[in-house]
Design brief:
Helix content is about 75%, strand content about 0%. The protein has five helices and no strands. It has helices at about 5-25, 35-65, 70-85, 95-105, 110-135. Helix 1 crosses helix 2 (about 35-65). The longest helix is centred in the middle third of the chain and has 30 residues, at about 35-65.
Length: about 140
């Protein structure tokens, strides 16, 4: 693993952990009024929620990297240029040129979102199993 990949993984873990901590603070998980089963339920939600969001962000980036949204974004950019005054003086880019330009700038190296998101979701599932055993 190179240094750049380690930085990506560490940043994702910190962001997901921060989201989990915020969830725990909002639910008041650090107070003593919750029983063990309720605490496991809160911990399950706190870890599964950022994990699932991370997996969904990975899926959106993966779908967009295949060029699925190119037609939509091209159409919206042409429509925006036609409605904004003064933008019609610029020559419209052909779709083939637009597609070629977009293919050069596709995102790469985003699998860390899937790995970290799956890890957080797995921890959430473990807490869910503990919650269901005690409830």
């Amino acid at each position: 693993m190179n240094k750049r990949a380690v930085v990506k993984y560490c940043a994702a873990i910190l962001i997901f952990a921060f989201a989990s901590l915020c969830f725990l603070l909002l639910r008041g998980a650090f107070s003593t009024e919750y029983g063990t089963a309720e605490l496991f339920g809160i911990l399950s939600d706190a870890f599964a929620l950022p994990g699932i969001i991370g997996i969904m962000v990975f899926l959106l980036v993966w779908i967009s990297s295949t060029g699925f949204f190119d037609t939509l974004s091209y159409g919206l950019s042409v429509a925006a240029r036609s409605f904004i005054p003064g933008m019609r003086i610029y020559r419209d880019e052909k779709f083939a040129d637009y597609k070629e330009r977009k293919d050069k700038n596709r995102p790469k190296g985003y699998s860390f979102l899937l790995v970290v998101g799956s890890g957080f979701t797995l921890v959430g599932v473990i807490f869910l199993i503990l919650y269901l055993r005690l409830a």
